[in-house]
Amino acid sequence: MAVDVVHAPVKAAPAVPPPPRVRRGPRRSLLVLGVLVAWVVLWIPLRGHQIFALDPSQLTKLHVRLNDLRDTVERLRGTNPFFTGFVDVIRNAIDGLTTFLQTLLSQPFGDRPVPLLGWLGVVALATFAAYAFATWRAALLTAVGFVCFGLLGYWQESMDTLALTIAAVLVCLLVGIPLGIWMGLSRPVERILTPVLDFMQAMPTFVYLAPLTLFFLIGPASAVIATVVYSAPPVIRITAHGIRGVAPSSLEASRSLGATGWQLLRLVRFPMAKRTIVVGVNQTVMCALSMVTIAALIDAPGLGQVVLHALEILDVGTAFRAGLGIVVMAVVLDRVTTAASVRVEARYRGGGTARRWIPLGVAAVLTLVAVYLAYTFVWAAVFPGSDTGGAFGPSIASGVSTATGWVQVHLVGFTDGIRNAVSYGLLNPFQALIADSPWYLVGAVVVVLGHLAAGWRTLPLTVPGLGLLLATGVWHDAMVTLASVLVATVITMVLGLACGVWMGRSATVDRFLRPVLDAAQVMPAFVYLVPFLGLFGATRFTAIVAAVVFAAPVAVKLIADGIRAVPGTVVEAATSAGSTRWQLITRVQLPLARRSVVLAANQGLVYVLSMVVVGGLVGAGGLGYLVIAGFSQQALYGKGLAAGLAIVLLGILLDRITQATAARGGSRPQP
Questions:
Q1: Taking the CB of the first residue and of the last residue of the chain, which one, N or C, has fewer CB atoms within 10 A?
Q2: What is the 3-state secondary structure (H, E, C) of 428-453?
């Protein structure tokens, strides 16, 4: 009997539908180009309308009110309890600390015509401290560096700078380490402090000098407080990072043994975070030295005063001589604190624990002998040759002045050619477009470009920020400054991309360039002006070049790190597919390092903007000039204060837009 076999029908696999066609709008780069073209087209008929350009001596109602506020504060200074019971107490305490350190290092003490610690005692103590906390190499560098201060003829000025730096660092550590520990232990505290620290670090250094002098007067107290504001964020953040980074297993083991919260902090968290905290101390020391020299604008004593006065009279030789002293101090402090952090790290890992009691004892005895000699004998208290400008100081200043004169005479064609090419080919057209456009046109362009680059998240910040910038009454000067900042940032990014890609692709180039970039980052901002002042004179271009050299190291290092972080497998795959070196860079490495590139642009902008007021010392104009004029002329105090506020607003706008752009780029799938 035949059986009909009925086969179950085989279900066919569903057909895979084709991917939906995505309607792509115009590329963002084309939209940006369209906005820029529309801007130029509208600029032609609207040029010069509603740009709010003011003469240097012309004031708005806001500026007059700020002047009146200053007069009111000065009237209340001696009677109001806020000043007598709070502001004056802080000022007197910091003045007392600074005066005490100066009597030890630089200024006469009582009836003594010399400090308590003469030059020999200071060199011996500094060398002993470097040996005790770091290494013998750091101690040798310290001894040589401190002797160089006297050989340059600026022993007293160098010790004044060191005294202010020590005072500021002590206050930073006294306040910053407890706050950092608290921030590392408490997430609510971290959420509260983070925006405050962001604001302190994003705000250009000069901006809070004028408000501080309004309350604390000019002098060492205001200089130390301004330095603390600038230098405290690194130690707070890094301390919190170290406390938060302690291994949970170590904490759990201690808790299982019955350790209390205080015991955990004292015996586990703090010792294990000590190496990280020392790194924070290093960063704070370098920030403090940089700010102390800048605080010469508010009558802070030291090497900054020498540089400032030399810049005012265009004495390049003297400025270079004092700037060399600042560089030597920066290198010594950086290397000693870095070596101290390395030593702490080695001790933590179980190495570098050889006992040095005998060498330390011998060094301590020699240090005490040197201190006694410096206290007793004039030859050990007053650096030899101080009355004649030091052994090398006059020769260095004369040589630099002679070289500057030779360059200005024989290389004037080359230097003027570079300056004119950048000024007439890039800066002047860019400044004309930005500064001579109506305020509403610039505002609209900024809002649209911010939206295209970073999305809608920038709108709640951009619109109020532009409105406040307009309300400061220095809109035109702000646009002049913005043009210079953007030009300097473009040049910085060109250098950053060229050198960063080179470093990221070559380990040999990285080993050569990275120490140079590290050294460039420890130099205070004043130092960058000196060589370019000799080359190009007091012009806007000098300020731009100094800002580029100041900002380029951080941009180069960020881009190099981004290029190096591209996975090797991706590079090998692209190479095996036949990509040329140029295609590999432009189509693989740079797109994958896009977030690092945008972050480099962000940091380049911030660093360039921090040089705005320094550039005002050498003819940059714009907001930097107004800030300096506010320090030197009573009638322009309010206008200088408004210019400082405008710098803050520009910094916040540029910083937040570029940060949002970086965040948006990082959230996208990479090619």
A1: N
A2: HHHHHHHHCCCHHHHHHHHHHHHHHH
Asked whether the beta carbons of 484 and 622 are under 8 A apart, the reply is yes
Provide the CB-side half-sphere exposure for 389 (13 A, CA).
Answer: 10
Output 659-668 pairs: Cβ under 8 A, ≥24 positions apart: 659/602, 660/453, 660/454, 660/455, 660/457, 660/458, 661/453, 661/454, 661/598, 661/602, 662/595, 662/598, 662/599, 662/602, 663/454, 664/453, 664/454, 664/455, 665/594, 665/595, 665/598, 666/595
Nearest Cα neighbor of 308 from 539, 628, 633 is 628
Q: What average pLDDT does the chain have?
A: 83
On whether residue 73 sits in a domain, the answer given is no
How far apart CA 594 and CA 95 sit, in angstroms, is: 48
H/E run at residue 200: helix 187-202
Site of tokens 């101290």: 340
Average pLDDT over residues 147-171: 91
Pick the last residue of a domain from 367, 388, 405: 405
CB within 8 A of 542, min separation 6: which ones?
Answer: 529, 532, 533, 535, 536, 615, 618, 619, 620
Q: CATH no. for residue 612?
A: 1.10.3720.10
In this prediction, residue 204 carries a pLDDT of: 66
Percentage of residues in the chain having pLDDT higher than 90? 17
Domain that holds residue 584: 411-666
Segment 253-278, tens digit of pLDDT: 878 877 777 878 878 887 888 878 88
Burial of 318 (0-12, 13-18, 19+ CB in 10 A): buried
Q: Summarize pLDDT for 214-246 with one digit per residue, the tens.
A: 888 888 888 898 888 888 888 898 888 888 878
The whole-number average pLDDT for the span 111-118 is 86
Rounded CA-CA distance 500/598 in Å is 13
DSSP for 562-606, please give it.
HHHTS-HHHHHHHHHTT--HHHHIIIIIHHHTHHHHHHHHHHHHH
CA atoms within 13 A on the CB side of 592: 20
Instruction: Report the alpha-carbon distance of residue 222 to residue 300 in Å, rounded.
Output: 8
CB atoms within 10 A of CB 99: 15
Q: Determine the residue type at 303.
A: L
Number of domains the chain contains: 2
> Is residue 51 within 8 Å of 436, Cβ to Cβ?
yes
Say which residue the tokens 């295209």 belong to: 452
Residue with tokens 């910094």: 651
Q: Give the mean pLDDT of 469-477.
A: 91
- Evaluate whether residue 354 is within a structural domain: yes
Name the helix (H) or strand (E) containing 121.
Answer: helix 119-133
